[in-house]
Amino acid sequence: MNSSSSRVRLLQCFAFCLPAAIIIFIFFFVPMVRSLQLSFTDWDGISLTSQWVGLDNFRTVISHRSFNQIVRNTIYLMVIYIPLLNVFALFIAIQIYEVKNLGNLYKTVFFLPNMLSMTVVGFIWKLIFSFHNGIINKFFRTVGLNALANDWLGDPSLVLPSMTMTIIWYALGYYVLIYLSGLYNIPVELYEATEVEGASSRQKFVNVTIPMLAPAITINIILSTIGLITLFDLPFVLTGGGPGYNSQTIALQIYYLGFVTLQPKLALALAVILGIFAILIIIVLMKILRKREENIL
Amino acid sequence: MKKILMILLVLMMSAGLLTAAGARGAADAETVTLSVALMSLDIPEETQAFLDAFTKAYPHIRIDYVDVGASIEEYLQPRAAAGLLPDFFSINAGSFAAQLADRGMIADLSDTETARKTLPSVKPQFTSPGGKLYGIAGGLASSLIYYNVDLFNELNVKPAENWEEFLELCETIKRAGHTPIIITPADGTISNTAFSHGFANNVVRNNPDYVERIWDGSLNFNTPEFADVYRMVKVLYDRGYTQPGTLSTEYLMGNALFLQGQAAMHFAGTWLAGSLLEADFTTDVFMAPWNRKGEIKIPVVATETGWGVAEGPNKKEAIMLLDWLNGPGYTMYQNPRANIPHLMEVEGEVILKPQIQRFLDDLAAYELAAGLWFEYLPSEIMPLTYKFYQEMLIGDITPEEIAREFDLAVKQAVK
Q: Domains in chain A, ordered, with CATH?
């Protein structure tokens, strides 16, 4: 290929990328830079002007009593939700893979909640968890186990587990599909070879399935982490972040500061913190998981 | 010849399309679509009905209506920032709306027919520092204790006159195996009830100039009296006088529980008189006895959430809706709620429950009254009021710590 045709090809590439690049520039890059800039000012959310205040907004956000609680909630959800979701999803994916005949039916059933919006899911589970009329408490009361009828969304020790369960119910099908596509890509010959060598089911799972699923595991862990760090709509509908700040996520707190207490300068500062936090977490996870993938493969 | 025919055909089609587009443009010029955002949680069907009736009366005005849920400010703030306020919207008296009015985003309604008919006493709350009447109150409002008269008669108890008597009343009801009172700390509505009455009786009593003092930063919230605004609810909760599942009980659920007869009393707004006084059992109201023994009560009376109009191309039509709602359509809005009217002249027969009329008559005996929380607190502080209740009830913070933090937050907000 001569230099002029390669230049034309390069121009073509640019031309094809340009519409997407313009959209990304206008709707992602400009707001991001503007948010960063405004997070160092006293902007009130309406005025066209603002004054530089340095790191004041960041100090206010971090020193607020709720900040520690919100970070704790995020860590709790990461530690509980991500492993649980991935273990369940992998387990179900393997069951569906092995069932074969009814596989499509199961895939549809598990994916169904994912077709609903998170807001709808929030309302459904709010009714299910309701202390007074919820189906869970009604069941316990009907069978005479009144002590188990709890205030699922009002008790600080139960609200995060309840929320975790709801997110898993919602997200499971999506992650199952990713694991299933990974499973279908594993060459059958590998299993046959291990069978010839007399490997048990457990050995096949540990030495073939898991290593071959490494890329799917990486994708699922990264996706579930991003989903969790930016989780907003479910706690917004389900609990409003309460009781107190016991189910408040960082994304919800950004909304709360920006549109409820009408302090957009603080919301932007927290959004910047969230952005940095998310990037760091993803970089660390990517490094660990990629290294693991390389070791396996 | 074929070519000429084709050209003629294309020209005819183009002309036809242009004519159609022009005709549609002319039709669009006559029809106006009003964006309407109303807080209609209590009366969703009635709201739709009066908007439909308005459209019927003015067929050239279409309504694009949205229910804003429980928080108006939350709905309006991002739209104000983007310069996209709805044409006609619900609005609370307070600093947020006043700020928008003085920035030229909300229309001055002083010269409207509705303003002329509105009681002069409910105009100052909706007047901005710049002198604009940025909203018309949707009524006068207070919060009262609704109670189950049949149950009170059965237990041989009567409404309490002060806090100490109220605790005794709750204890008697609890001992009889009933839930004494419903409170709703899961959303902001507890601020309409326990906070506003606690603030009136604990703070306003000794600071009648509280509004000015809040805004010049001289009112001290870090006091035992203000801590009591929160402690009083903690006492009710800790003694088991509130409903099971208190912490997750929201506004609508609280109303439903009372109507189902699941508690003897319910602390709620007068705007619910139309439904709560129509229960399957006999109901009545009494003024919240948040006063100590030997003290007279400080009643709470305020403007109710009202209506505002955006400065924009559809201002004229939005004012038509305002005037219609406060004119021929008023009874459609007022009667299902049976709240206290804000108008001096009313078209049609207005329903006002005798229990609420009695409360209004009693008010004349009081020299001092306080507003509802949203009328005097800076907008940044408003959401803190109920979050603090939640945090206190789960043991994350004490009333004294709330008083300290509240003081700091208010001083920071008004600085």
A: 71-296 (1.10.3720.10)
CB contact under 8 A, B103 and A246: no
Q: Domain limits of chain B?
A: 33-140+303-348, 143-300+358-414
Q: How near does any CA of chain A get to the CA of B346, in Å?
A: 36
Q: What is the dihedral of CA B202, B206, B212, B217, to 10 degrees?
A: -70
- For the cut 60, the answer to whether the pLDDT of residue B25 exceeds it is no
Burial class (CB in 10 A: 0-12, 13-18, 19+), A121: buried
The class level of CATH for B33-140+303-348 reads alpha beta
Kindly report, residue by residue over B182-213, the tens digit of the pLDDT.
999 998 889 999 999 999 999 999 999 999 99
Topology (CATH) of B143-300+358-414: D-Maltodextrin-Binding Protein; domain 2 (3.40.190)
ipTM surpasses 0.90: no
Cβ of residue A65 closer than 8 Å to a chain B Cβ: yes
Chain B contact probe: residue of A261, A266, A268 with most B CBs at under 10 A: A261
Of all residues in chain B, the one with the smallest CA distance to A137 is: B245
pLDDT the model gives residue B11? 52
**Mean pLDDT throughout B227-247?**
97
Residues 6-35 of A with CB under 8 A from B: none
Q: Which pLDDT tens digit goes with each residue over B253-293?
A: 999 999 999 999 999 999 899 899 999 999 999 999 999 99
